[in-house]
Amino acid sequence: MAHTTQKNAPHLIVNNQTKRELDITTVIRTVEDSKVLVDDTAAISANGDHGYTGLVSNEPLDVTIRTETGLENTYRWEETDPENALSVGVSTDEIGFVVATPP
Fold first, then answer.
1. If DSSP codes are grouped into helix, strand and coil, which group holds residue 53?
2. Structural domain tally of the chain?
3. Whole-model pTM?
4. Predicted confidence (pLDDT) per residue in 24-70, tens digit
5. Strand order in the sheet with 36-44
6. What is the DSSP letter of 55?
7. What are residue 49's DSSP bridge partners?
8. What is the span of the domain harbouring residue 54?
9. Is 88 contained in some domain?
10. How far apart are CA 72 and CA 26, in angstroms?
11. Is position 6 within any domain?
12. Among 36, 41, 52, 62, which residue is least crowded by beta carbons within 10 Å?
């Protein structure tokens, strides 16, 4: 799946690292006022991914990922520079977060 990204806004990619399709809910809120930017549930195929673009830059965001199996994790994304991305890996027993910054 190809992702188009805006050059002036950070983006997030959720990757399903399991061997079956999962319904994965992504909720992204601003830390300052808890404004909901994204509240979306997507069916993501095995080893597939789903992206979110056009997020607020240069302010912290709370990112909550929840699976249909009850797995849930929240990450405070502080480094929301416009060129950064947050990669979320969902496995059968863990949800991990990695911030990608340009060299």
1. coil
2. 1
3. 0.90
4. 999 999 999 999 999 999 999 999 999 999 898 999 999 999 999 99
5. 36-44, 22-30, 61-67, 72-77
6. P
7. 15
8. 11-100
9. yes
10. 10
11. no
12. 36
Contact of 86 with 65, CB cutoff 8 Å: no
Q: Which amino acid is at 61?
A: L
In which residue are the tokens 């909550």 written? 64
First to last CA, the chain: 24
Beta strands in 1-103 (DSSP E): 11-16, 22-30, 36-44, 49-52, 61-67, 72-77, 85-90, 95-100
CA distance 56 to 58: 7
In a domain, 75, yes or no: yes
Cβ neighbours for 33, distance < 8 A, ≥ 6 positions apart:
none
* Residue 3: inside a domain: no
